[in-house]
Amino acid sequence: MRDFILVASSQDLAGVTMSDYLRSKQGFAPDGLHDRKEGQSFSSPAHSSAKLYVANESLLTLETLDTTYPDARAFVFLSKHRSDSGIPTLTCHCTGNFADAPFGGNPKEMAVALPSLQKAYLKAITNAQVPGYDVIIEATHHGPTSLKKPVLFVELGSSEKQWADRGAAKAMCDSLLAVLANGIKPCEKVAVAIGGTHYPTKFNKLLLESEFGLAAVASKHALDAIDEAMLAQMIEKSVEKVTHIVLDAKGLGSHKDRIMRLAENTGLAVLKV
């Protein structure tokens, strides 16, 4: 059986909080498979579909996990979320860089997405109703980008107080483990999404209230970088076949006509929200 690899970093307080919970309450113990200066591997008899890997470097630069876990089904990164607002927030997103790569990964490279995993986790953590926290997806951003297997970041934020919140960490880990244990149902429809803000409420609603899953999500801040080649990469870098392009029509600004033409030229169904 191919495992989901839960990836934390000793440099990331939220990841430390979540990995501490997995080890102390969910039975994850050192398994001797990857115990070296780069990091350590943990397994739990109660969770056969998942392994935990705690790295000693930044999550954003872990581009060699394919070598460590060549049979992984996907990598789920347990990460902090930082924002100037400081609003308690639980987020999830795929990774990739539309232009430059200031926060890990390669420029103009999308990571592989597993839309059904993001959709299932978002539904689970939303249903968990963690008191005091907003729940929202983010647009695609940062590294790692070159892993051959899908990448999903699940994040706890938005400040140090939340990064150490054991109750929120428990809800996130329990939601994730339940999703992995129950099996992930492939999405009937999969889209790449373009437009809107970095916290795309319209696309978030689409995931929660329809049959759609999402691969790459490009906010209005990335529109300058969306050309035919980038759009093709967004479509191709999905384990599940992309069937639609979803546009936040009001969130495309001056790029609206150009993005519409690019979308229509793909031959995929175009949906405006």
Terminus-to-terminus distance: 39 Å
Low-confidence stretches: none
Question: How many extended strands?
Answer: 14
Query: Sheet bearing the most strands, described?
Result: 8 strands, mixed
* Number of separate structural domains: 2
Stated plainly, the CATH topology of the largest domain is called Aminopeptidase
- Strand fraction: 25-35%
Please state the structural category: alpha/beta
**Strand order, biggest sheet?**
2-3-4-1-5-10-6-9
Q: Which architecture of the largest domain does the CATH hierarchy give at level 2?
A: 3-Layer(aba) Sandwich
How large is the count of helical segments? Answer: 8
Rg result:
18 Å
List the helices and strands in order: EHEEEHEEEEHEEHHEHEHEHE
Helix content: 25-40%
CATH class category label of the largest domain: Alpha Beta
Name the overall outline: globular
Mean of pLDDT = 96
Can you tell me the CATH superfamily of the largest domain? AF0625-like
Subunit structure: Monomer.
EC number: 3.1.1.96
Family: Belongs to the DtdA deacylase family.
Function: D-aminoacyl-tRNA deacylase with broad substrate specificity. By recycling D-aminoacyl-tRNA to D-amino acids and free tRNA molecules, this enzyme counteracts the toxicity associated with the formation of D-aminoacyl-tRNA entities in vivo.
